[in-house]
Amino acid sequence: MAKATVLFRILGNIESYICRTLLSVFVILLFLQIISRELFQHSLSWTEELSTYMFVWFVFFGASYAAKLSAHNRVTFQFKLLPPKVGVVMEAISDLIWVCFNCYFVYLSYDFVFHKMNLFWKSQTLGVPMKYIYLILPIAFSLMTIRILQVNYYKLIKGIDIRDPESLEVEKLMDSDNQNSKSV
Amino acid sequence: MVESSIVLILFGSFIGLLLMGAPITVALGVSALVSFLYLDENPIKFVQIAFTSVGSFPLMALPAFILAGALMEAAGISRRLVHLAESFAGPVTGGISAAAVLACMFFGAISGSGPATTAAVGMLMIPAMIKRGYDKGYASAITASAGSLGIIIPPSIPMVIFGISAIGMVAPPEAIAKFGEFQTVSIPKLFIAGFAPGLIIATTLLIMNYVSCKKRGYHGTSDGWSSDQILKAFKEGFWSILAPLVILGGIYTGFFTPTESAIVAIFYTLFVGVFIHKELKLESIFHSLETTTWLSGRVLLILFTATVFGRLLVENQIPAIVAESMLSITDNLYLIWTMIIAFLLFVGMFMETLAAIMILTPVLLPIAYSLGIDPVHFGIVVVCCLGIGFQTPPLGENLFIASGISGTSIEEISLRALPFAFASIVGVFIIAFFPDLTLFLPRLLGY
Amino acid sequence: KTFKVAVGDAAGGTQHELGKKFNEVLMEKTGGKHDAKLFMNGQLGSEQDTVNDAAIGTLDFSILAINNVTPFSPSVGALTLPYMIQSLDDAITLTQGPVGEQLVENTLRDAGVRIIGWAYSGFRVLTNSKHPVTTPADLKDVVVRVPKNEIMIDTYKAWGINATPMAWSETFTALQQGVVDGQDNPYITVYAMKFDEVQKYVTNLRYLFSIEPLIVSESVFQDQSAEDQAAILEAGKAATAHSAQFLRDQESKIKAELTEKGMVIADPADNEKEWIDLATSKVWPKYVDSIGGKDVLNNVLKSLGRDEI
Ligand code: NA
Ligand code: NA
């Protein structure tokens, strides 16, 4: 049981773990590049490309993580003028549209990576086939779709409202004068 | 006409989806997809745009600055900067609220985000102002308003995004023939150019603050300036004051690119936080990494869909049509500036800043070029206008944060923030009408 | 129909010139039925993206640097080896002769795009702000910016220095601030970018001749009627011829003007022999496999009347 719980916890935040690792690594990589250039007058030709591709992976996994936190900004002031039910229904419908868009995009990117992409195409300095680097798109958008469904399952069926982290931060500010809490 | 029907479909479905409460990125992506299908174009283009819109080296400045800002707060750098500003409050009328504006400037020089500036400064200064008898709403309003200095004074995440959006766009040959060569846009250039406009906006806020405090009878403390206290704040804040120098110094001397300077700032903060202030915990480093993750993911997903959206506009030559119809109304530079500023302020009320920049740059920059407006100058005005949007309802991120801190209603803060919005708008007009105010510093530094 | 043409460079360069002429002749040959709208400066995506887009059929035409075609069709890489092309005549022979036909076929097979024209931008001459450079040894204290291109980086290595790879958008500022001392680019680019304001010495290196093909999406091409296909091909040919003439006219004019503005132009010592020997002996072996083997290389050399390896 305990093992399963740990596994679920890891899976539940898998994007966060991946992203934090990617972010730390490319930040360190860029720092090493600066050190090597400024102190040893030596430019590492591969760092820029490697860190850029790590960054792309970081972004799309991060987008999926943001979906899990329900953090993608929406315009919601108009719902204040309407009965609360309307807002809930409209957001659910728009999430359904989002899911459809993502599924279509997953299909497009899968098709692109496996059928349309040129076989010779390799990254310039690393020599890795671009195919593998582009794989992030079908993977991350599939994951994101699962997250959107997950959030809506919690919200509509379980009745647990997943609020975006910014409004949570603001609420926390109202509750306490904890000076170390962060908000960006 | 194809153009007008595509404009209708693109913008119609975009606004429709926004009003339905779809995330901005979804509204952009779906409306672009619908237009692609309407034009009978193959949407497989989306895939490559998804990858290349994000996969650019200069864009890495964005997560780097977010991370640097988050770490600086956890390392106690922000707090010391605010304390330093607070120590200048002194006996003058409205001294402590002026100190809040000053704190936003200090903090703006290390952070690239408006809401982050409001939060960091507000958490210390709003309670301090209330303690000195300020009205809660007023204290919140001035902090929310000055928070936008966080994106005007460099470093600035919106400027990074403007730079990225504008770098690929060169002036049309007709404009070059008429006005001569335009300078190229670069992020360092924007950063340098933002400095003086930041001071101008701060000055207008300080003047408005003085006038309001006089009317409200907010006097300073009776015991005058305490040089001991200032000296103490300076001593404690020594390593914090170095932080903006590290960031800006590297960029201004051309030693580092903006991305690199953010990276250096990250390691500087780690060093100061762990070894000097001894406040930085492993847990808060993890938390900073996590915050950076979802913030970057959210913003840059918008970048993808906004790029598709922009590509549609470009391929159908809509920016050119907009520019033409705008110029057919008038070709008076000041009138057009006024129209653009009014439009940006309106957009800033409803729209998230970075998304607005991504969507509007491809439309507005060609107009600027055809009027002979310098692209760097234009970018600064755009950022200033949208910065005011942080303090205007219904979507005003700074308002939400200030309201959270002080426990005052959004409505009350927005009302109290009106005079400051007015002051900032006056500042924006000054910046727009006198381009040299913005451009002299980059010129002086040889950019 | 109005075809969409992606152009990598900004207005005013050789790519623009090729595109304009192409449009002009296309309109003339089709009696105004078809024309070509140029989207300058990468508005339709990076140069490499446009190859994919054209292959899929979502873009009609693209004009781009040859090294951005190489990843999709390796054999065109033969044109990007240092000192493979040593004069404009070499370039014309290679691109318009039998070797060129072979490359066009290979690209069609590998990448699904058809090369129908070529822009000639000239040799990438070396500029720097420090001192005159005529031998590889002169380079040792010069920090040179290069694009993120392995062959170029390796060529500078062969000459004894570590070049600094840097994005184009940062280059002018870096030269101005002294982060780097030199760079290489065709005269037309040096002039258009006003590098004379930040650089003083020019060395007429010939290690890379910039060639920029005009490609058409094969699926778009096949959708056209036989007459329209012929018109497209003819327009491509006419634009190519125009490009060669444009280069001849511009280069001599620009050289004179740059000299007048204070730039010091020099030829490499000993007719460039040391430069050529270092580059060909150290760089060619490394890339010979990636462009399709020794036979491909020898075939190219033979067509130029040079010694095979
Ligand atoms: Na800032
Ligand atoms: Na707003």
From TrEMBL, chain A:
<dbReference type="InterPro" id="IPR055348">
    <property type="entry name" value="DctQ"/>
</dbReference>
<dbReference type="GO" id="GO:0022857">
    <property type="term" value="F:transmembrane transporter activity"/>
</dbReference>
<comment type="subunit">
    <text>The complex comprises the extracytoplasmic solute receptor protein and the two transmembrane proteins.</text>
</comment>
<dbReference type="GO" id="GO:0015740">
    <property type="term" value="P:C4-dicarboxylate transport"/>
</dbReference>
<keyword id="KW-0812">Transmembrane</keyword>
<feature type="transmembrane region" description="Helical">
    <location>
        <begin position="130"/>
        <end position="149"/>
    </location>
</feature>
<comment type="function">
    <text>Part of the tripartite ATP-independent periplasmic (TRAP) transport system.</text>
</comment>
<keyword id="KW-0813">Transport</keyword>
<feature type="transmembrane region" description="Helical">
    <location>
        <begin position="17"/>
        <end position="35"/>
    </location>
</feature>
<feature type="domain" description="Tripartite ATP-independent periplasmic transporters DctQ component">
    <location>
        <begin position="27"/>
        <end position="154"/>
    </location>
</feature>
<protein>
    <recommendedName>
        <fullName>TRAP transporter small permease protein</fullName>
    </recommendedName>
</protein>
<comment type="similarity">
    <text>Belongs to the TRAP transporter small permease family.</text>
</comment>
<keyword id="KW-1133">Transmembrane helix</keyword>
<feature type="transmembrane region" description="Helical">
    <location>
        <begin position="88"/>
        <end position="110"/>
    </location>
</feature>
<dbReference type="Pfam" id="PF04290">
    <property type="entry name" value="DctQ"/>
</dbReference>
<keyword id="KW-1003">Cell membrane</keyword>
<keyword id="KW-0997">Cell inner membrane</keyword>
<dbReference type="InterPro" id="IPR007387">
    <property type="entry name" value="TRAP_DctQ"/>
</dbReference>
<keyword id="KW-0472">Membrane</keyword>
<dbReference type="GO" id="GO:0005886">
    <property type="term" value="C:plasma membrane"/>
</dbReference>
<feature type="transmembrane region" description="Helical">
    <location>
        <begin position="50"/>
        <end position="67"/>
    </location>
</feature>
Automatic annotation (TrEMBL), chain B:
<feature type="transmembrane region" description="Helical">
    <location>
        <begin position="420"/>
        <end position="441"/>
    </location>
</feature>
<feature type="transmembrane region" description="Helical">
    <location>
        <begin position="46"/>
        <end position="72"/>
    </location>
</feature>
<feature type="transmembrane region" description="Helical">
    <location>
        <begin position="334"/>
        <end position="360"/>
    </location>
</feature>
<feature type="transmembrane region" description="Helical">
    <location>
        <begin position="6"/>
        <end position="39"/>
    </location>
</feature>
<comment type="similarity">
    <text>Belongs to the TRAP transporter large permease family.</text>
</comment>
<dbReference type="GO" id="GO:0005886">
    <property type="term" value="C:plasma membrane"/>
</dbReference>
<feature type="transmembrane region" description="Helical">
    <location>
        <begin position="367"/>
        <end position="390"/>
    </location>
</feature>
<keyword id="KW-0813">Transport</keyword>
<dbReference type="InterPro" id="IPR010656">
    <property type="entry name" value="DctM"/>
</dbReference>
<dbReference type="Pfam" id="PF06808">
    <property type="entry name" value="DctM"/>
</dbReference>
<keyword id="KW-1003">Cell membrane</keyword>
<feature type="domain" description="TRAP C4-dicarboxylate transport system permease DctM subunit">
    <location>
        <begin position="11"/>
        <end position="436"/>
    </location>
</feature>
<keyword id="KW-0812">Transmembrane</keyword>
<comment type="function">
    <text>Part of the tripartite ATP-independent periplasmic (TRAP) transport system.</text>
</comment>
<protein>
    <recommendedName>
        <fullName>TRAP transporter large permease protein</fullName>
    </recommendedName>
</protein>
<dbReference type="InterPro" id="IPR004681">
    <property type="entry name" value="TRAP_DctM"/>
</dbReference>
<feature type="transmembrane region" description="Helical">
    <location>
        <begin position="92"/>
        <end position="125"/>
    </location>
</feature>
<keyword id="KW-0997">Cell inner membrane</keyword>
<feature type="transmembrane region" description="Helical">
    <location>
        <begin position="292"/>
        <end position="314"/>
    </location>
</feature>
<feature type="transmembrane region" description="Helical">
    <location>
        <begin position="237"/>
        <end position="256"/>
    </location>
</feature>
<keyword id="KW-1133">Transmembrane helix</keyword>
<feature type="transmembrane region" description="Helical">
    <location>
        <begin position="137"/>
        <end position="170"/>
    </location>
</feature>
